[in-house]
């Protein structure tokens, strides 16, 4: 039998022993490269995916700026009603992204009133993607916009002015918030804010401190409070525990959120909208704040497995896909 062309081209002074070692070296180099890619992919992903999510938010903001600019250069008068088509389009896109990546579900959407005011109080994850998704569901299925209180650093981000205007995000003064509710609007507040987002952990602590402003707002406007919690929100995006004490000291002094955010894995997310806590004129704002705090703790205890686990939450996502396939 004729030798293969490969072996026929081997110089006569190269022994099969040497050839075998060369091929073995190539094989080991190939395996090393493969395992390097396999091991580094999750590490790259936990840094890259948060940037992707932030990129989607910025694309939304730039789209809204272009949308508003189009109206103005064509000589149209731009009013708040003009935002409705753009808002609906973005709600559709964010709802699709939520379903595709996180298998997003919501339970209790009927607890958000179709008309009239209410204060929505939600637990703040490291990145509030669940808030984007709840907002999208409300726009699509309740035909209502939930205004929101945003941290002051949001108002200094470039290109965010149109996003803030479209989705009616406001600074959190008691007078401003109460006025929004008195006009019959829905308003959302995360009492923990950036502090809860960056310095919480897999045990889902409620980091509200002495904040009772949200209760004062509800009592002033005489509206119910609707608690909202999303299962696995701290596993979708998370912050590392290393150096947190030092970074928190910096945050408390400067209010600059320097804590890096990781994650973005396809965890299973499910938002639970609790039953409204009615306005009660016989209690104080402090008592109302305590009542909401206890309700939020109860929702976390009921709907979240503690401590939270990225591996388990991703597995739950694939379990959800398996159920859809066989339903």
TrEMBL record:
Kindly indicate whether the keyword Nucleotide-binding belongs to this entry.
no
The record lists the membrane-crossing segments as: 33-64
Q: Name one GO molecular function term.
A: acyltransferase activity
Q: Does the keyword Manganese apply?
A: no
List the record's Gene Ontology CC terms alphabetically.
membrane
- The chain positions of domain Phospholipid/glycerol acyltransferase read 118-233
What SMART domains does its record include?
Answer: PlsC
Q: Name one Pfam family in it.
A: Acyltransferase
What is the annotated signal peptide range for this record?
Answer: none
Which InterPro entries does the UniProt record give?
Plipid/glycerol_acylTrfase
Q: Mind telling me which SUPFAM superfamilies this protein's record contains?
A: Glycerol-3-phosphate (1)-acyltransferase
Give the top-rank taxon of the lineage listed in the UniProt record for this protein: Eukaryota
Q: What are the record keywords, sorted? A: Membrane, Transmembrane, Transmembrane helix
What is the protein's name according to its record?
A: Transmembrane protein 68
Organism in which the protein naturally occurs: Trichonephila clavata (Joro spider)
């Amino acid at each position: 039998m004729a030798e293969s062309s490969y072996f026929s081209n081997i110089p006569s002074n190269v022994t099969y022993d040497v050839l075998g070692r060369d091929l073995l070296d190539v094989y080991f180099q190939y395996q090393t490269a493969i395992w390097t890619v396999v091991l580094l992919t999750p590490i790259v992903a936990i840094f890259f995916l948060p940037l992707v999510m932030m990129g989607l938010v910025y694309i939304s903001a730039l789209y809204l700026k272009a949308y508003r600019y189009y109206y103005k250069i064509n000589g149209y008068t731009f009013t708040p009603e003009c935002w409705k088509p753009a808002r609906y389009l973005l709600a559709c896109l964010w709802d699709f992204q939520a379903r595709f990546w996180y298998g997003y579900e919501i339970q209790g959407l009927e607890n958000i009133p179709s008309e009239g005011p209410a204060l929505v109080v939600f637990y703040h994850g490291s990145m509030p993607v669940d808030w984007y998704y709840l907002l999208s569901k409300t726009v699509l299925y309740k035909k209502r916009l939930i205004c929101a209180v945003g941290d002051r650093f949001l108002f200094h981000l470039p290109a965010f002015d149109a996003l803030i205007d479209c989705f009616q995000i406001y600074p959190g003064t008691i007078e401003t918030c109460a006025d929004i509710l008195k006009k019959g609007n829905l308003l959302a507040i995360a009492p923990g804010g950036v502090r809860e987002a960056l310095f919480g952990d897999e045990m889902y602590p409620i980091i509200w401190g002495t904040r009772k402003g949200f209760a004062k707002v509800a009592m002033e406007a005489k509206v119910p409070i609707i608690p909202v919690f999303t299962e696995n929100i701290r596993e979708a995006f998370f912050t590392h525990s290393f150096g947190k004490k030092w970074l928190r000291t910096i945050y408390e002094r400067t209010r600059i959120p320097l804590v890096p955010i990781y994650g973005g894995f396809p965890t299973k997310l499910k938002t639970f909208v609790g039953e409204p806590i009615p306005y009660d004129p016989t209690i104080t704002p402090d008592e109302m704040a305590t009542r909401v705090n206890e309700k939020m703790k109860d929702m976390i205890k009921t709907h979240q497995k503690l401590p939270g686990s990225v591996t388990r939450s991703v597995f739950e996502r694939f379990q959800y896909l398996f159920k859809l396939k066989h339903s």
